[in-house]
Amino acid sequence: IENEAKNGLKNTRGTIAMARTGAPHSATSQFFINVKDNAGLDYPSRDGWGYCVFGKVVEGMDVVDRIKQVETQTNPSNPREKSQPVNPPIIRKAKRLTKESSDSTS
User: Fold this and answer.
1) Which of 5, 82, 98, 105 is deepest in the core (most CB within 10 A)?
2) Residue 20 belongs to what domain range?
3) Bridge partners for 32 per DSSP
4) Which CATH number does the domain housing residue 46 bear?
5) How far from each other are the two terminal CA atoms of the chain, in whole angstroms?
6) Strand blocks (E) in 1-106
């Protein structure tokens, strides 16, 4: 996917952004929720590209915070990272909201 991090959106707590490898246009289907402000991921970043924000948690950040607390182990695909949940949580429901419906939840 073409990196669109230049869209003006910032990696602040509660925003949802595309995960990618070190290559700027390598995002596919993985995303992450920022659990804190991550200005270092904004465009322009050290590599010049940043991580593209495309959404925001509008309800349930308390659930995200609980998921953040699960026990983790070393990630087999990146031994420098202890990010793999020992017992992965299951997200049973997520909704894509229209602009109008998200305005009413704010």
Assistant:
1) 5
2) 5-90
3) 17
4) 2.40.100.10
5) 30
6) 15-18, 31-33, 53-56, 72-73, 84-85
Residues 87 and 70: beta-carbon distance below 8 Å: yes
Per-residue pLDDT of the chain (106 residues; tens, 9 = 90+): 899 999 999 999 999 999 999 899 999 999 999 999 999 999 998 888 999 999 999 999 999 999 999 999 999 988 999 989 999 999 888 888 887 766 665 5
| String of DSSP letters for 5-29 | GGGS----TTEEEE---SSTT---S
Task: Kindly state the tokens that stand for 90.
Answer: 């299951």
d(CA 57, CA 69): 18
Q: Is residue 100 part of a domain?
A: no
Structure tokens at 11: 């990696």
How many structural domains does the chain have?
1
Residue 78, domain member (yes or no) = yes
Residue 39 and residue 63 in contact, taking contact as beta carbons nearer than 8 Å: no
**Residue 98 structure tokens:** 């229209």
Do 35 and 64 form a contact (C-beta atoms < 8 A)? Answer: yes
Distance CA 8, CA 77 (A): 31
